[in-house]
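Weekly modeling sync, notes
Attendees: S.R. (lead), two postdocs, one rotation student

Agenda item 3: backlog of single-chain predictions. S.R. asked that every request posted to the team notebook include the full sequence so nobody has to chase files. The rotation student volunteered to paste the first one in as an example of the format we agreed on. Action items at the bottom.

Example entry:
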Amino acid sequence: MLTFYINPSHKAKRNFAVLFVNAKTRAERLDTCQGCEHYVTTTKSCGPLVTEAFTDSPLCGCYMPAKTKLKVASCPLDKWEALITSQDIETIREFLERDNADRTKQELNVLSTKFLGGQRASGCAACNRKLLKQLKDLVHNADSQA
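Predicted structure, as returned to the notebook:
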């Protein structure tokens, strides 16, 4: 079952935009799902809901209008891929687990440009903390999907 963390504060909700694909990608993914023989129209799911928990089926049983929005999500039948892979998440996790003194602005720039829609690190500590928080949210969201 698809589960992801949402912080209820208005400011935090804006930060969660980094977790989601753009409208075009989402529409392409959903069109692919809706054209699949395993898509269940009545539940809008990939096979019966919660399939994975009860059978050996390769289908995920997820509610596809939600799953197709997530950068970390992928089709269990390999019809579309995650935009952020498990290897990417590990790279981000390793960066976040290091001491602040061992992190560089250049590394933060590389990660934030690749995963946060082109946002760049700056000389502003508050702005850089925001980027770090968004990277932590990506890792947390990926962990909740696993």
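Discussion: group reviewed the output briefly. The chain is about 50% helix and 5% strand.
Action items: rotation student to repeat for the remaining queue; S.R. to check formatting next week.
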